[in-house]
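Late entry, written up from scratch paper. The run itself happened at the end of the previous shift, but nothing got recorded in the book at the time, so transcribing now.
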Amino acid sequence: MGNAIEAEGLGRSFGEVEAVKSVDIEVADGEIYGFLGPNGAGKSTVVKMLTTLLKPSRGSARVLGHDVATAADKIRLDIGVALQDASLDKKQSGREILRMQGRLYGLTKPEVDKRIDELAHLIEFDAIDRMVDTYSGGMERRLDLAASLMHNPRLLFLDEPTTGLDPTSRAFVWQEVKRLNEELGTTIFLTTQYLEEADELADRVGIINAGTLVGEGSPTELKSEVGSDVIVARVTGNVAAAEAAVAALEVVDHIDPAGDELVISVTNGAAAVSPVAVALDASGVQVAELTLRTPTLDDVFLELTGARIEVDA
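Output as recorded:
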């Protein structure tokens, strides 16, 4: 199995602003790679470089064996792209947009009609022949996804495909991403700011923050680096004193303070809850809430960057 994407030292600046500093990525054929990070981290800029919409300022990248700087036309024939903002002609019907997309990729009329029939399930039954200006935001995203699949791409780029969608539409997109990968073997590069989306869909996750890749691995591997269990203590009073008291315990692996919360990584949560509670009480703080859970990707992001991902609605 080869790599669908290889990037080394990939970076992009806009004037004096380094949107992407230096990113090394390898994505294997047939993999779902989740690119996780907050708004402004550089996710979309990386996607635009890999899809030949932006030229890198430094470094190199190959997509499906072709250099992004010198073989853009070859790359574009074999990839599908659904960007964060769907660019759809509001005065066309869904069917007209899909037909135009197919013809742009050189499909014959019978091939176009066949692909539309195969992709019609992505769009609500009665919507494909309606004007796009009657579509909801979720329907537009579904149509944009269908358009990106008209030519059966080997590699699909999805840039925050579910941002702003309702739970039903989000679940539908998740289901389709899994189907494309499992049934057709499509390689998928998925950017997201949703922790549960990366956890649910991705074989491997790359975490980007401030233009730099700060962590990479399977969701399970990344979470195991935090610890086997997490105790979250929300306190009022001297948080620094509470942190010092808990840090002295042998059962504690490490602590990440976050405002009025202490995110405490431990090996055995059941055994650690009681001594943590006693230490907090002895430190003089008031404990408003004490919760035991397994680690999440949010804990991973907090450990790697010192902050949590703030998700837009």
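The mean pLDDT is 91.
(Scratch paper discarded after transcription.)
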